[in-house]
Design brief:
By secondary structure, the chain is α+β, with helices and mostly antiparallel strands. The protein contains 34 helices and 48 strands. Strands 20, 21, 22, 23, 24, 25, 26, 27, 28, 29, 30, 31, 32 and 33 form a 14-stranded antiparallel β-sheet that branches. α7 (370-378) crosses α13 (481-489), α17 crosses α18 (791-804) and α23 (869-881) packs across α24. It is extended. Bound molecules: zinc ion (ZN). Residues 321, 323-324, 326, 340-341, 343-344 line the site of zinc ion.
């Protein structure tokens, strides 16, 4: 580029050889001082055009007469207006410019002065997607310059608020009022250069008239020289000359939808528009005829094209670009069902016609058949976008000012990848999709067809009907012309292919049954929020309601033909039956729609309501879930759910809530399933996910829509709580025991059996009351912990619970129990107790059995707690029979039950012994631990993590004395419903954060002693043992269990609290009895020797010690001799991971006699699982996991994705 002073020229013409041709030589006489001479709207640019001295005088008289008639335009002083005759013009509204795509930027700029002048010209500059134009004033319709944006090759700042716009042969220089204004122009213009050129296959079109009807020089009266005129489509373009035409730089364009052509004298003819008349003179009569004919055709074209656009725009959603929101979009993808703006059209075109068949609403008149127009009214941007743009992240959404690059990214993602589309529930199941398509094309629902086709349904699939072999023939047979149209347009469409694989699960597509019902109901206005207050009768209006053909409509009266409103059955997501007398009308129900609206209907007649509820439910519940309809539900509907087996994608399930049972029809399970909400192990809510934990199953219900989800959450929480004061109305365990009873008994068993006078001592009244209240509110959420609760408070909570429970533990039969004590024959008495026990209700039975078992255990340890059989009976008699203590029979019953516990309850002696052994073990362990009083001591509830230590991945497990590491692992995997493959070596690790080490527990290792030896910075973690396979392979290849070799060795020596020493090479020999250390290979005598069984080997060495490699082992030696408690810790470093693995495997193999892994792990898991709860778990229950679905999914995903990550951390 040349020096800047050259920009003083108006424009610089560029020629191939770099010479510049002065284009401003004719400007001199065009300088009309604006203040002195009235300014006419000069069509022709003063700096670019030749202008006769006469100027526009020939048209001026007409102007005056016109102004009188057309006053609305009189404000436009600078324009010359002429009357319009003939057809109605399409008068543009303010700020909308029908002949051009929407303006992207406009404003006043100074254009550099023509040569010889110093006066900058004030110009109104407009930029749209197609053109950069400038005008004399903001009111002008016809520009002085029109520069296609496609011909702009560069835009640059040139200082002093100036910028230049470079085209192939010229440079236009502008000056803004400020730098910031200038920068805005430059930035917005730069968006048009570059990308368009770089795009492959993009035609470099400098002028818009690719298919012009006629072009050539025409004289325009008032101008000295002829203008090169082009009639093209619905526009007429004026150029200064043919060269300019070639370069695409014109003066103005005339939109012909407002034009009219009039024959004048001789070779003259007029093109009139509401803004101006152009007096043309052709060269010959013949040419005049041709010109006039071409212009009339152009007008016809323009008008007919507006017809299409106006029709399409009749649907309000089509008045805005489906992609960026720009108003009055003039383009459409006829196969995708969307209307969009010119700029987006460019991006659509680059997708290729196999994805987007782009047509103009104005120019491609012929394609716009009635059916196609109708299709666009039925689909339209709104409904099409409900599919195409169902999941657009706000950060990716377009706006009318988005750049080309943003548009390209978005449009590719939207239509080529289908990234934002709403996945059809059948996505991924070709057979079901095709089947659904065949069913659907027989109806008028084109939106559904769109969703099916663009989720993969094959438009050419086999219908199975011999005479109607394809979906479009099938549609035609059923008279569904729009379906035919849509299918035809998409015969060869490429279906979006997601880059990211979406795992979807099929749902059976069953057309809903057509239910018909009608009658009067009372209805309130629909709302977007839950109803919290009572609605009085005045707030309801009487409506005639009709349910027919999958549509529910309500009318002003039964005489009206036009409904006031309604909704499609398939839009209903939930139906709720309110308890009677919730509102002014005694019986009411609520309908929730997909679009998060709530409709409330009421009636005074319970029968009317029942019928409506039944009919509505029937018509929106799919056949596979219709079993649910048999329930006396308070709430029924559709929810998305996940289970831990497949956290990646959620599926649709149908749920209904009846009393405290949640009935469920899940997609892939056959038939109905139900969840007893009162028996949940856990019910927690994490923002939009409700987690229901049953034993062996966890269900995540997702809040797909806020409105109905919140209703479900509240209802499920209500149903999961205690529903009353009887035993069976409490929150229950799997074993039908009230949660409160079980929790108290567990606590007392673990911490209270040695407490003197247990159950007789009184606790702190306020604490007892508070704890009891907490249990009553939500027993499931109360966890008793040592230190937080005192044993005596807990024993009193249990007693008070039994004393207060409605109907009592013995229910109505209490007198029979009491009178049984009168039976003197012991065996008769016992059999009568058995009889009475068997006739108790389920929950009472289980509870009584559990309680007596507990009391039996308590008295077995009477020498520790001083509560013998008799003492316990005195306390529990009146409590259980809820008497005042004067009836001694109560105590006698309890005494009998405890004394004859084994016989009355048919107790397995072996199991009982085991239980007592366990208790003994616990007591012993506590005795040993108590002097130490470490923070974790005595806490039998252990926190175990899955995969990763974080709060949300933790599980609280009560560890029975007998539990092995394998059992703990199985338990945790079961709880998560983790599917386990044979070669997934799931293992429980002891992790020390302080030492930065980990040790896989041997599968037969008892967990409880480990739990009690864990320091504060240690924990248990269940994860896959990625080294196990390699270790097993290595060991299998070995003949004898020995290993020797060089290792880097370091001893932990503490000097004044500082660790000293460094890693030194030592030779090691490991055999089945000992590990020996030699100074080097040649040494005869070992420097040190340790028995292998006294070594605990951990993987890892803390970084603080600066191990020379990352393949280290930390070895702890604990001497066996109790009198000389010695503990040493030292470190071994290997050169490779394989080396380390081999050493480690050899250690373990020696210590475990070659049994590193159970031969049939899967089987042992199954055995462990099928064993009865009592034997397997020592009669303790698991405390369920916490953590939300997201975090669980992350942790699951993390280990699936990169198992090696764990190795790298070693
Ligand atoms: Zn757009």
């Amino acid at each position: 580029m040349d020096s800047s002073d050259e920009y003083e020229e108006t424009e610089t013409a560029k020629c191939g050889n770099g010479d510049r041709i002065d284009m401003a030589d004719k400007d001199t006489f065009l300088q009309i001082p604006e203040n002195h001479k009235p300014r006419y709207n000069s069509l022709c640019s003063d700096d670019e055009l030749l202008e006769e001295d006469l100027g526009y005088e020939s048209v001026a008289p007409k102007r005056d007469s016109w102004i009188e008639d057309y006053t609305p335009f009189s404000s436009c002083q600078n324009s010359i207006y002429l009357p319009v005759t003939g057809h109605e013009p399409c008068i543009p509204k303010e700020d909308s410019d029908p002949q051009h795509t929407p303006v992207i930027k406009m404003g006043w700029l100074y254009k550099n002065p023509p040569q010889g002048s110093l006066i900058y010209q004030h110009r109104w500059v407009k930029l749209d997607a197609d053109y950069l134009r400038y005008f004399d004033s903001e009111k002008d319709v016809y520009s002085k310059r029109i520069i296609p944006t496609s011909s702009i090759t560069g835009v640059a700042n040139v200082g002093d608020q100036k910028f230049e716009v470079v085209t192939h042969n010229r440079i236009f220089l502008f000056r803004a009022e400020s730098d910031s204004e200038r920068n805005e122009w430059v930035s917005v213009l730069q968006d048009f250069i570059g990308p368009a050129r770089m795009r492959p296959g993009h035609e470099l079109t400098l002028n818009p008239c690719v298919t012009s009807e006629i072009k050539g020089y025409l004289e325009l009266r008032g101008l000295r020289s002829k203008l090169y005129t082009v009639v093209c489509g619905d526009k007429v373009f004026l150029y200064k000359n043919a060269e300019d035409y070639k370069m695409g730089i014109g003066i103005t364009s005339i939109d012909m939808n407002v034009g009219n052509v009039k024959d004048m004298d001789k070779r003259a003819f007029d093109l009139t528009t509401p803004y101006r008349t152009f007096n043309f003179v052709a060269e010959t009569d013949q040419l005049k005829e041709q010109w006039m004919e071409a212009m009339r055709d152009s007008i016809a074209e323009a008008l007919s094209n507006y017809e299409v656009a106006e029709k399409i725009w009749a649907e309000p959603a089509n008045q805005k670009c489906a992609d960026c929101g720009t108003t009055k979009p003039e383009w459409a993808a006829i196969n995708l069902g969307v209307v969009f703006c010119k700029r987006c059209a460019g991006e659509h075109r680059s997708l290729g016609p196999s994805i987007s068949k782009v047509r103009s609403l104005k120019m491609d008149k012929k394609v716009w058949t009635d059916n196609l127009i109708q299709l666009f009214l039925v689909l339209g941007n709104e409904r099409a976008n409900q599919f195409w743009a169902a999941n657009v992240p706000p950060s990716e959404a377009l706006s009318p000012t988005s750049s080309s690059e943003e548009r390209r990214r978005y449009i590719i993602a939207k239509y080529r990848e289908g990234k934002y589309r709403r996945y059809h529930p059948l996505f991924g199941n070709q057979g079901e999709l095709d089947n659904a398509l065949c069913i659907n094309v027989q109806s008028s629902d084109v939106c559904e067809t769109l969703a099916l086709v663009f989720c993969g349904a094959d438009v050419n699939c086999e219908t199975g009907v011999p005479d109607l072999p394809s979906p479009s023939v099938l549609a035609a047979f059923h008279g569904q012309n729009l379906q035919v149209e849509f299918l035809t347009l998409n015969r060869n469409t490429e279906i979006p292919r997601s880059e990211t694989k979406v795992a979807m699960h099929p749902e059976h597509y069953i057309p809903l049954p057509s239910i018909t019902h009608n009658g009067f109901l009372f209805k309130t206005a629909s709302m977007a929020r839950p109803i919290t207050e009572r609605k009085n009768k005045e707030e309801f209006s009487r409506r005639w309601c009709v349910l027919n053909d999958g549509q529910f409509n309500y009318y002003e009266s039964d005489k009206n033909a036009t409904p006031n409103g309604g909704l499609k059955m398939r839009e209903i997501v939930c139906l709720v039956v309110n308890p009677p007398e919730t509102h002014g009308y005694d019986h009411s129900f609520e309908i929730y729609s997909d679009a998060e609206r709530l409709y409330l209907f009421g009636t005074d007649n319970p029968e009317t309501m029942r019928e409506w509820v039944k009919s509505i439910a029937k018509s929106f519940i799919p056949a596979y879930a219709e079993e649910l309809l048999q329930q006396d539900f308070e709430r029924i509907g559709r929810l998305r759910y996940k289970d831990p087996l497949n956290l990646e994608s959620s599926r649709v399930g149908w749920f209904c809530l009846a009393a405290s049972t949640l009935h469920v029809c899940l997609e892939d399970s056959h038939g109905q399933d139900s969840i007893d909400l009162q028996k949940l192990l856990e019910l927690s809510r994490d923002s939009e996910v409700l987690v229901l934990v049953e034993r062996g199953r966890t269900l995540y219900i997702e809040g797909e829509r806020k409105l109905d989800f919140h209703g479900w959450v509240a209802a499920i929480q209500r149903a999961a709580g205690s529903s009353g004061d009887t035993l069976s109305q409490q929150q229950l365990t799997e074993g039908d025991i009230p949660v409160i009873v079980e929790r108290c008994i567990h606590y007392i068993t673990q911490y209270g059996l040695t407490s003197e006078g247990i159950y007789r001592k009184s606790g702190v009244n306020s604490k007892i009351a508070a704890l009891l209240e907490a249990f009553r509110r939500d027993a499931r959420s109360v966890w008793l912990k040592e230190g937080e609760q005192q044993v005596d408070d807990v024993t009193n909570v249990l007693k008070r619970f039994f004393r207060d429970i409605e109907e009592g533990l013995f229910s109505q039969e209490a007198p029979s129990w009491l009178s049984t004590t009168a039976v003197t024959d012991e065996s008769k008495r016992i059999s009568q107790y058995q009889h009475l026990f068997n006739s108790l209700p389920r929950v009472n039975k289980a509870t009584l059995r559990t309680l007596v078992n507990h009391l039996y255990c308590v008295q077995r340890f009477a020498e520790l707690n001083q509560m013998n059989l008799h003492n316990l009976a005195i306390v529990f008699g009146p409590t259980l029979f809820q008497t005042d203590g004067k009836d001694y029979n109560a105590g006698r019953v309890v005494e009998d039950l405890i004394q004859h516990y084994v016989i009355i309850f048919h107790v397995n002696q072996h199991q009982l012994k085991r239980q007592l052994d366990e208790i003994t073990y616990i007591i012993k362990l506590r005795d040993n631990l108590n002097p130490k009083t470490g923070p974790a001591s005595g806490d039998f509830i252990c926190t175990v993590y899955l995969e990763e230590k974080k709060e949300t991945a933790e599980q609280h497990v009560k560890i029975p004395a007998t539990m092995t590491a394998a059992e703990l692992t199985f338990e945790i995997l079961d709880r998560r419903k983790m599917s386990v493959k044979e070669k997934d070596y799931w293992c429980c690790f002891e992790i020390s954060e302080k030492e930065e080490t980990e040790r896989p527990l041997h599968y037969q290792e008892r967990v409880l002693p480990i739990v009690h030896s864990l320091g504060v910075d240690s924990h248990l973690l269940v994860k896959k043992h990625y080294n196990m396979e390699a270790m097993l392979v290595y060991l299998a290849s070995k003949v004898d269990m020995t290993k020797h070799g060089m290792l880097k060795f370091k001893e932990e020596r503490s000097l004044l609290g500082l660790t000293t020493g460094s890693f030194n090479d030592r030779y090691f020999m490991l055999n089945h009895t000992s590990l020996r250390l030699y100074k080097d290979v040649r040494s005869n005598r070992p420097e040190k020797e340790w028995p292998v069984k006294c070594l605990k080997v951990y993987q890892g060495i803390k970084k603080k010690l600066r191990p020379p490699t990352c393949w280290g082992l930390t070895v702890v030696y604990e001497s066996e001799k109790p009198e000389k408690q010695e503990k040493q810790q030292w470190y071994l470093c290997c050169d490779t991971q394989t080396e380390m693995r081999e050493w480690f495997a050899t250690f373990l193999s020696i210590q475990q006699s070659g049994q590193l892994w159970p031969a049939e792990w899967g089987k042992s898991r199954a055995t462990s699982r099928s064993a009865p709860l009592d034997t397997r778990m020592g009669n303790v229950s698991l405390i369920p996991l916490r953590g939300n679905e997201n975090e669980m999914r992350n942790s699951v995903a993390a280990f699936i994705a990169d198992p090696l990550a764990l190795l790298r951390n070693l």
